[in-house]
Design goal:
With 531 residues, the chain is an alpha/beta fold. Helix content is 28%, strand content 13%. Among the domains are: 303 residues, TIM Barrel, CATH 3.20.20; 55 residues, Oligo-1,6-glucosidase, Domain 2 (Oligo-1,6-glucosidase, domain 2), CATH 3.90.400.10. The longest helix is centred in the C-terminal third of the chain and has 17 residues. The structure holds 1-deoxynojirimycin (NOJ).
Length: 531
């Protein structure tokens, strides 16, 4: 449904709803299971909307729930305009949208424009149709190199390990930057753009408020598929880039974003955030020009160690990166592709304390915050037994890389034994550790000292307190291992102590602290908000 035009006028005059929103990433497989099969689904999410309302988040980002063979857990899409039976159906999706909107929660969903599943009807047709057919033109099918075409067309590797090319029976090779079951689309073919526009309108007409664009810097490929130069791979991988890497961030990608933005502009009040693994600020902000994406994911806090200097540098460089564009900064500590921050910061009690501190740092910052489901419970990564691992990275790397399953373990809701109310069935798709009995939503909800209570309070203050206005920060002088910043103009102060000893706090009244103060001082591995 198109939004009425008078609303459009209003939107251009007031800040967009997302400019300081707290988004909550729902990893659909792992959030809540509504039908007892051990895998999270859309009805499961609808049944837990009361919880999300209590948490206070303004919008959800749902990871892919479309028809898929699930080789990459839904990022291999076989039909982008239908719901996979594992997750429900279109009616379940409509129920979720209606009920979320009734509660004032916006819904944004993943779009996967870079590739499809090898089970998508286009790819199946392409394999059957043979070389030089229009069907093959929708993907990147090339003849191989070597005397008989027996070698891949170039030396590109897949992000998941191994070559980025696989061969079909007639001898041609096709490109897949991820798993072989995720062939890359050829964006030089206008049918590809037309199909994405159709998919976008399909979901926008069903009421979605926006999209998260998967691998938003990946769709355009360089002419002639040049080899990767020596060194181009260094540091490249999920969420990480290398400026020499010809696989990503090719200039042609911006025309694609302009086309995507045009479709969104038909639906005022909707938005898109891109997953952009581009560290260079100038190149990053190209994606955020007025006719491209509204927001770009920023992974600098994911990369920063838990020390005041690194965190401050990440904050300053993130703010500087978007200073030249009309797009607020975004902040992320965890998502389904990285080790959860409790674990990154050392795990156990230490990681948990530090994660609470960083939650206060993140929620004090101007701009948009993306929470990852379960971080509000203080969950860390789980060391899974090898038999349980499902991420294609595990297989593709010949079991040398564990992959991302550890951060995707289902949410513990209630009770004292796994699967902790996640499913009415006996088992969840990844096993939930028995130790999570103390971390369930039920165990934390009424406990004022729990991580869940800390998040609830912080999100509430952020939404309602005038001290969170304004986009600029000023930094205080602080003891070594510490920092303090103030939201310019509105007054909120956030202090972080990553050093070994308690430190005095700046003057002011405490609004919230991640740990109890010790004799009026901020303890190690803690943060506080003051006014
Ligand atoms: C990024 C997604 O976040 C990740 O989970 C997925 O494996 C790749 N894109 C490929 O779609």
């Amino acid at each position: 449904m198109r939004r009425p035009v008078d609303l459009q006028t209003e939107i251009t005059q007031t800040p967009a709803w997302w400019h300081d929103a707290v988004f909550y990433q729902v990893y659909v497989r792992s959030f809540a299971d509504g039908n007892g099969d051990g895998v999270g689904d859309l009805d499961g999410i609808t049944s837990r909307l009361g919880y999300l309302e209590l948490l206070g988040v303004q919008a959800l980002w749902l990871t892919p729930f479309y028809r898929s063979p699930m080789v990459d857990h839904g990022y291999d899409v076989a039909d982008p305009r239908d719901v996979d039976p594992l997750f429900g159906d279109l009616d379940a999706f409509d129920r979720l949208v209606t009920e979320s909107h009734r509660r004032g929660i916006k819904i944004t969903i993943d779009l996967v424009p870079n590739h499809t599943s090898d089970q998508h009807e286009w790819f199946r047709a392409a394999v059957l149709a043979g070389p030089d057919s229009p069907e093959r033109e929708r993907y990147h099918f090339l003849d191989g190199s070597g005397e008989h075409g027996e070698l891949p067309p170039n030396n590109w590797t897949s992000i998941f390990g191994g070559p980025a090319w696989s061969r079909v029976a007639d001898g041609q090779w096709y490109l897949h930057l991820f798993a072989p079951q995720q062939p890359d689309l050829n964006w030089a073919n206008p049918e590809v753009a037309a199909d994405l526009a159709r998919t976008m309108r399909f979901w926008l007409d069903r009421g979605v408020d926006g999209f998260r664009l998967d691998v938003a810097h990946g769709m355009a490929k360089p002419d002639g598929f040049p080899d990767m130069a020596p060194g181009a791979l260094e540091g490249a991988g999920v969420l990480h880039d290398n400026a020499l890497d010809p696989r990503f961030d090719n200039d042609g990608v911006h025309d694609i974003h302009r086309m995507i933005r045009k479709v969104l502009d038909e639906y005022p009040g909707t938005m898109a955030v891109g997953e952009i693994w581009v560290k260079d600020s100038e190149r990053f902000t190209r994606y955020l020009r007025a006719d491209e994406l509204h927001l770009g994911f920023n992974f600098q806090l994911v990369d920063a160690d838990f020390n005041a200097e690194s965190v401050r540098a990440a904050i300053e460089s993130s703010l500087a990166a978007v200073a030249t564009v009309d797009s607020p900064p975004t902040w992320t500590l965890s998502n389904h592709d990285v080790v959860r921050h409790v674990t990154r910061y050392g795990g156990g009690e230490l990681g948990w304390r530090r994660a609470r501190a960083m939650a206060l740092v993140e929620l004090a910052l101007p701009g948009v915050v993306y929470l990852y489901n379960g971080e509000e419970l203080g969950l860390g990564d789980v060391e899974l037994p090898d038999w349980a691992r499902q991420d294609p990275i595990w297989e593709r790397s010949g079991h040398t890389e564990l992959g991302r399953d550890g951060s995707r373990v289902p949410i513990p809701w209630e009770g004292t034994e796994a699967p902790f109310g996640f499913t009415t069935g006996t088992a969840s798709w990844l096993p939930i550790p028995a130790e999570w009995a103390t971390l369930t939503v039920e165990a934390q909800l009424e406990d004022p000292d729990s991580t869940l209570s800390l998040y609830r309070e912080a999100v509430e203050l952020r939404k309602t307190h005038p001290a969170f206005a304004g986009m600029e920060l000023e930094w205080y002088g602080a003891p070594e291992g510490c920092f303090a910043f103030r939201r310019k103009g509105s007054g909120l102060v956030c202090a972080l102590n990553t050093g070994p000893r308690p430190v005095p706090l700046p003057a002011g009244q405490i609004l919230l602290s991640s740990m109890p103060l010790s004799d009026g001082q901020l303890p190690p591995d803690a943060a506080a908000w003051l006014l």
